Amino acid sequence: MFIAMNRFKVVKDGTEEFEQVWLGRDSHLNEMEGFVEFHLLRGPEAEDHILYASHTIWRSRADFEAWTRSEQFRKAHSRAPSTRPLYLGHPQFEGFEALGNSKIGERA
Question: Which residue, 3, 24, 30, 107, shows the most beta carbons closer than 10 Å to its own?
């Protein structure tokens, strides 16, 4: 399993627009081999921003990398940009290989 995350420092007066863009977009993720699930996470608030993370789970790193080279990826990221900056700096990507897994009721 591979988990891909992008962290965004969203300006406080841009949170509603940011959420609408991310939750209302046609991501085309369900068309991709190996896609498992997507979450948009809202995190802690700082003085000048609120931290968000997009979080996708893939069957493998290879499936995620295929997504980044796909036509579906280009379509999902071609939406019209906002007329104003919604976040500070560039998103920060983090990718993780899952080494273990446990579920509620199971012993780790």
Answer: 3
